[in-house]
Every structure is written in structure tokens, then in C-alpha cells.
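SEQUENCE-TO-STRUCTURE ENTRY
===========================
Question of interest: how does this chain fold, as expressed in C-alpha cells?
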Amino acid sequence: MRILYLDTSSSFLYAGIVEDHKLLASCKKNLFHELSKEALPEIIQLFEQTHLAPRQIDKIIVVDGPGSFTGIRVGITIAKVYAWSLHIPITTISALEAMMISSKSKGNHVPMLDARREYVFAAIYDEENRQILSPQHIKLRDLLQKLEEKTYVAITNDSIELPISKESYDPDILKIVETYQEKEEIPVHAVNPNYLKKTEAEEKKG
């Protein structure tokens, strides 16, 4: 089975093509403000490196959030158009799931992203990767209160002041794909960004 993995939930493009337990090609590149312009050409390069045609992909796994509003839309749009036009199955995962699976440390994990104004996007997983707290937009102090009884490792690339140990996020694309390759496929029209919070425009409307 050949699977395309795509994550544009930050300023980084994390993408890869996996075939039968082998990572054929990958991209981990900070595209900054050029993400919307450069993501697709970078993905095309992955196909050129692997000498595969887009229609030879059997499934797409795309990160649907949380993270950058613009970034998430870029990846979702590319994945949906690709899946719809070539009739390729598609499924989604959370950026926080990808962060948890990629951790190199053992124990309880708290993947998190800075959501500004003393809020974070976060989830909590135990040492068996079982979800204790579902991905959500939560005040940092409220999250920390939930961590008082056990030892946790935070997974983040953001500058968040924390009283627990931290691990930088470096996506293990092969491990992510192998973990979620059997996840249930969903209709293309049902694939939408999962921001976990209202957009600024929605917040202003109340």
C-alpha cells in the first residue's frame, strides 16, 4: 500500500510517501509565509523523487488541525482536491496525535501548541498512548492542574513556560503512517479543518 502523508498545520510542510513499511521520500521544511505557494510544488517533488504518479497512491492521511488557520486550510484543500479528482481514499488525524506518536520518550505525553493569550491546544496520553484528555483549546493553567498527579513530558516546538520536561517535535512520518494507515476512511466532503476554537472573525461576532 502506498500512502501520502500531509501536514501543513504550522509554517512547516511535513509530507511523505510510505510504501509497505518504508518511507520512500519525505519533506520537513519551514516554508514560513510561502506555505500556500510552495506546499504543492514540494509535494510534486516527492512524486518525482519516488518516480510515482499521483494516481498510484492508495490512501491519503492529512492532518486536520489544530494549528495555523491558514496552514490547515492549505493541506486540507490539497488533500481533498487530490482525493476527489483521483478517487483516492482519505482520512484525517490530529496534529496532536502525530506529535504524540512521534515522541522518542516513554511515559505520559502532553503534545501542545501555543494558541496565544495563555491558551494552548493540547491533549494528554498515558504511557500506552491511550487518550486521557481529548485534543482541545484549553487555558494553560487549567491544563497544568490536570498534570499534577503524574509525571508528564510535554511535546512542543513553541516557547511555552512549563514546570515539566519538554521534548521537541520532529515528526516520525513512517511511524505516524503505520499507526494510522488502517484508520477509517471518510467521505471527501466530510474532510474539514478542525480548528478546536473559533476563528477571530467568529469570536468578534460573538
In short: The two ends are 46 Å apart (CA to CA).
